[in-house]
Each structure stands twice: as structure tokens, then as C-alpha cells.
Design goal:
CATH topology of the largest domain: Alpha-Beta Plaits
Shape: elongated
Distance between the termini: 57 Å
CATH architecture of the largest domain: 2-Layer Sandwich
Number of strands: 9
Order of helices and strands: HEEHEEEHHEEHEE
Radius of gyration: 37 Å
CATH class of the largest domain: Alpha Beta
Helix content: 25-40%
Number of domains: 3
Structural class: alpha+beta
Number of helices: 5
């Protein structure tokens, strides 16, 4: 083979190699751009809020009787229980809606002249609790406020704050999270349009705070709030989502 032919062969090989390198670089560059583009995302927070009303109420009250003899204290508790149950029936709560707890017994110890308790029992205090559960939340609210009438009847009665519950909270939570996600998508669409882009697939989603607060409350907690003190409430759900940008 002559030197000229050999040199021409080297030139052709070099040219082919150069074209191959350029092509590989172009493919690599395109892949790199596609990789970078595939990682472009937009992250937004969506929320949903809904007014609800409690559909179940729980109210508790306690009474006691005390005497030097445990038998007399027990008779006092039985008499008081009859008075309390009759009072509840007169306000629309049948015995089936009332739970009566077992009687608790507390010995009363005598004190020394200096006020220090001794081991000598001088009497007994017996205590009992009634619990009312009802879907008539307004009626429960009313009796919780008016139960001081028992004091006028000589009953040592202590009323506790009612609890107002939403029994279908699990179902509402699903609905609210779906609404919050739709709100987040609408926000992402608007932001992408303003930037001359459009959103693609959902990349990530994370549930934020879900809470039940008093109506019109501005209370917020990182761990969520579950209000049981009010009949009228607000449910709030928050989600954070990321979408692919195209």
C-alpha cells in the first residue's frame, strides 16, 4: 500500500470517529436536558374548609353523700340517684340514654388538733357519676346549663362540660383531603400558566394539618386540633403536592 493511500485511510477514519463523537455528545446532551427537565417541579399547598355541626353529645355529672355510717351514706346515694334520674327523664332523657357508674367509696379520716390526718375513720363519702349520650345535642346543651336546679333540690351535684362530637369524621376527612388536593392543583395550574408552562404528572403529595376547631376560630396547631367543646365547628384540611413542569 502506498503512503498516499495509507494517509487517506487515516483521514477517513478520523472523520468517522469525529462524527461519532459529535453524535454521541448530542445524544448525551439531549438525555441530560431531558433528565433536567424531568426533575423540574412546582410545589404548592392546598387547603379546604367546611362548617359542620356536632351530631353526638356526651355529658357527665356526679353526686355524693356522706355520713358517719357507710350504710347511711349508701342510702343517701340511692336516694340522690333516684332524684337525678327523675330529673333527667323530665327533660327528655330516658333511662336507656343514661349510664350510671359504680359507686366509689372514700373513707374520711379524722384529723389531729394540728390538722394532720390520722388513721381513725370518722365517716364515709360515696360518689357516683351519670353519663348521658344523645344525638340531640341541643337538648344535652340545655340540660348541662340547667342542671344547677338539682342543687335547689338538695343534691350535691357537679356538672362537667359536655363533649360535642362528629361521628362521621373519618368520612369527612377523606372528602376534605380530596378537596384540598383539588385546590392545590388549581393553584399549580395558575402558577404554571403565569410562567408560560403547564403541569404534568403528580410527583409527590403529603398530608398537612387536619383539624376540627370552633366555628370561625383562627386556632392552628402543628399536631392538629380536635375541638369537643362546641356544637358548631369548622373542619380544615391541608395538603402539600408537587407536580412535574412541562
Amino acid at each position: 500500500m502506498s503512503n498516499g493511500v495509507w494517509r487517506d485511510g487515516r483521514v477517513v477514519a478520523a472523520a468517522v470517529l469525529a462524527v461519532g463523537l459529535v453524535g454521541a455528545a448530542a445524544v448525551a446532551g439531549s438525555a441530560a436536558r431531558a433528565f433536567v427537565d424531568s426533575r423540574a417541579t412546582i410545589s404548592v399547598t392546598g387547603s379546604a374548609r367546611q362548617a359542620i355541626r356536632a351530631d353526638r353529645a356526651i355529658w357527665r355529672g356526679s353526686y355524693n353523700a356522706q355520713s358517719a355510717r357507710i350504710e347511711d351514706a349508701y342510702a343517701g346515694v340511692e336516694s340522690t340517684r333516684s332524684t337525678v334520674l327523675a330529673y333527667l327523664r323530665s327533660h327528655g332523657f330516658p333511662d336507656s340514654a343514661v349510664t350510671v357508674s359504680p359507686i366509689q367509696t372514700q373513707p374520711l379520716f379524722a384529723r389531729s388538733p394540728s390538722g394532720i390526718p390520722t388513721e381513725q375513720i370518722e365517716g364515709y363519702r360515696l360518689m357516683q357519676t351519670v353519663e348521658v349520650r344523645s344525638a340531640d345535642v341541643e337538648r344535652v346543651d340545655a340540660i348541662a346549663r340547667s342542671s344547677t336546679e338539682l342543687l335547689r333540690q338538695g343534691v350535691r351535684f357537679e356538672s362537667m362540660p359536655p363533649e360535642y362530637l362528629v361521628t362521621r369524621l373519618a368520612e369527612l376527612k377523606k372528602e376534605m383531603l380530596a378537596a384540598a388536593t383539588r385546590d392545590a392543583k388549581e393553584r399549580a395550574l395558575q402558577m404554571a400558566q403565569n410562567a408560560g408552562s403547564r403541569i404534568g404528572r403528580l410527583r409527590a403529595a403529603r398530608q398537612g394539618v387536619f383539624q376540627v376547631t370552633r366555628a370561625a376560630s383562627t386556632e392552628v396547631s402543628d399536631y392538629g386540633v380536635n375541638d369537643t367543646s362546641s356544637i358548631d365547628k369548622d373542619i380544615t384540611a391541608v395538603v402539600s403536592v408537587s407536580f412535574e413542569i412541562r
